[in-house]
Amino acid sequence: MKHQQNSFQDPVYVVDGLRTPQLKAAADPGPFSASDMAVLAARQLLLKMPFSAHDIDEVIIGCVMPDASEANIARQIALRIGCSEQTPAWTVQRNCASGLQAIDSGMNSIRTGRSELVMVGGTEVMSRAPLLWNDAMRNWLSKWFNISSKGSKRKGLKRIQQYSTQALRLRAQFFKPVFSLLKGLKDPIAGLSMGQTAEILASRFNITRAEMDQYALLSHQRLSQAISDGLLEHEVTPVYDHNNHYFEQDTGVRKDSNLEKLAHLKPVFDRHYGAVTAGNSAQISDGSSILILASDKAVHKYHLPVLGKLIDCHWEGVSPEEMGLGPAHAIPPLLFKYNLKLSDIDYWEINEAFSAQVLACKKALNDDEFCRQELGLEKKLGDIPIQRLNVNGGGISLGHPVGTSGSRIVLHLLKLLKQQTSHSPEQSFRGIASLCIGGGQGGAILVEI
Prior knowledge:
Elements: E1 12-19, E2 23-24, H1 34-47, E3 58-62, H2 73-80, E4 89-92, H3 98-111, E5 117-125, E6 131-132, H4 135-149, H5 156-168, E7 178-179, H6 180-184, E8 186-187, E9 192-193, H7 194-204, H8 209-228, E10 239-240, E11 246-247, H9 259-263, E12 285-294, H10 296-302, E13 308-317, H11 326-337, E14 347-350, H12 355-365, H13 368-373, H14 395-398, H15 405-423, E15 430-437, E16 441-448
Parallel strand pairs: 3-4, 3-5, 14-15
Antiparallel strand pairs: 1-12, 1-13, 2-12, 5-12, 6-7, 8-9, 10-11, 13-16, 15-16
């Protein structure tokens, strides 16, 4: 690990942001496409701005599994919300941290002087993840269409014979679909699902099933309390579908969750010896989160309010088998770069892919051996206080729409810091948001109010 030390760069301002409710995926596809979700959030956000969509210099959106009709989904979103045809828009994909990558890319675009106002964020509709043909069916269809494409060069009887022969080769098992969502949640290099990597971390750091379930329960209790207290009202915008149904809050929260119910759930990824269940894992869900970034020049030009400042972002690669440790590797370099200690961070958001993964990151940073051997430190970094971590719930209770979570946790962290600062102007002004990333990476961003 490089122990760089740097002065603070010129900040990039977050003007404001909004997100849709995160809707738990059910048996049927959700009512919104990924671009619909982003447009709904972005339009409401623009209504709060003193500038128009034509004034936006660039649109950058994270998305992992857009619909086939949503190629370069950022461009479609930009045009649908009224940006100029001359406004460039591009889509980024870094698995679970795609939304954070969009923020990092927008921050760099402003710092290099390419843009002054940038719309960034993430969107994902996991309930509409495509169903694919298997290899056998694809090969059969390829041969079938090959007959048709060469048909003009063959006599009619020969073509009929070829079609008949190919039709007889069709088998029932060819129709078995491939679920792209399941393929996307499995790492092809390690040959492990994300849940299996969580089991590895649970074993390495001696995290018990009881600890996982207790953390999962805490996530639901915190989100439920935050909703009851109205803490998310300025973060979440209601959305309406084409049938006049509306959604005004996250649908995955289980207010009646308790340890007894969680304990009855069976392990999913290691049925005989595992401890990772559906109850202590992030939910599959749909949602979008959108933010407006601005340079100092744009803030003064449009007299913009400021939600907070983006200071810096750091990325690290880790073993794919232990991808959940990404935050434990990405956070320390960010702290050292700015001469900060854990105690200098007022609030933390570590995306809850799994209870085991969040708890493993906490234990790793508070472990002398891990910090010496894997981070090159002389001693452990310390403990992230649970009362400062994911204080309003996270992916376990909210859901984890993969393209969205990176921007959602940044938006929520800034809103949280703003709320706390309004109550205690002398406190709560610095935070870090971080995610583990499928494939073996970690990302972390430092923000201030």
